[in-house]
Design goal:
This protein is α/β, with parallel strands linked by helices. The protein is about 35% helix and about 25% strand. It contains six helices and nine strands. The chain has a seven-stranded mixed sheet, sandwiched between helices. Strands 6-7 form a two-stranded parallel sheet. Strand 6, helix 5 and strand 7 form a beta-alpha-beta unit. Helix 1 runs parallel beside helix 2 and helix 4 crosses helix 6. The longest helix has 17 residues. The radius of gyration is 16 Å and the shape is globular.
Length: about 200
Amino acid sequence: MDELPHSAAADRNKAPILAVLRRVLGTRGRALEIAAGTGQHAAFFAAAFPGWTWQPTDADADLLAAIAGRIVQGRLDNVLQPLQLDVTADPWPLAPGFDAIYCANMLHIAPWAACAGLMRGAGRLLAPQGVLITYGPYLEDDVPTAPGNLSFDASLRARDSGWGIRRREDVEAQARDAGLALRERHAMPANNLLLVFGRIAPAGH
């Protein structure tokens, strides 16, 4: 287990994210994690929310063994075996009814189509009162961009022209197309944001 891949960033941000999740999530539910990566968040949050069932997924099949290893390492009986999932697949091979869908640090290291795919999938799979939670760096029209994020954005685009920090307003537009609206914006350490989306209420409600 000592050979499991490790993300220093995931270790740094897991506690601040958990503090917000404790305010956003109830005591019981079903969560779907998109782009679970090394599985560090899945293991940490599942341990913190024993009343939740956590389903981790990742597009990279090579990471599924690492996620499974962390489940074993943490002796977690509320984390399901990880599944391979490409958010641009249509539809996702999962049954609806998730109370939360969680996605951290994916949108800026994936093609823009992944954002639309994430929103479409969430729109289909969330329970009526479910929430989509995204975490990572964003650009915002009414907020000056931190120099560190400007440098990070330039480095991402140099690595892959399809990558880059996304405008929060563009992400919101994709969410609206999928029937979701931004409910909460939480400023996080290191110039990141945690965004909470929910279903748009029908007219008259």
